[in-house]
Design a protein that fits this description.
Helices cover 7% and strands 43% of the residues. The protein has a four-stranded antiparallel beta sheet, with no helix packed on it. The chain starts with a helix and ends in a 15-residue tail after the last strand.
């Protein structure tokens, strides 16, 4: 978990993040202003959470950029907490806020392991 917290410190200044934890999952909340589901890709690769997002902007046809400081292009890899695998993860983005729910591996349904006499 500390690796994730350290990685979040390296996010661009325009991106704010919270990490919440319950008994069965983590909730990662990222402020990504202007990012929509169409301009966002999230995946898990090799124990790392890969987030790529870009701000969608509407520019009136009669204008062109003289200066552009509101660009948001995020391409980060964040380490998953040690007890999260990404399996069963769910995400939503609404109003530029991405919420990722990452179930803990230990939250898997309980299973009885049959034991036979030897």
């Amino acid at each position: 978990m500390s690796a994730l917290r350290e990685a979040l410190r390296d996010l661009p200044d325009a991106v704010f993040a919270d990490v919440l934890e319950s008994e069965d999952a983590y909730l990662l909340v990222l402020d990504l202003p202007g990012v929509t589901a169409d301009t966002l890709d999230v995946s898990v690769e090799g124990g790392r959470l890969v987030v790529e997002g870009q701000r969608a902007k509407d520019v009136p046809r009669e204008f062109r950029y003289v200066r552009e400081d509101r660009s948001v292009f995020l391409d980060v890899e964040l380490p998953l907490p040690p007890d999260a695998t990404g399996q069963g993860a769910e995400g939503t983005v609404d109003g530029g806020v991405l919420e990722l729910r990452l179930p803990k591996a230990s939250a898997a349904p309980s299973t009885t392991i049959p034991i036979d006499e030897g």
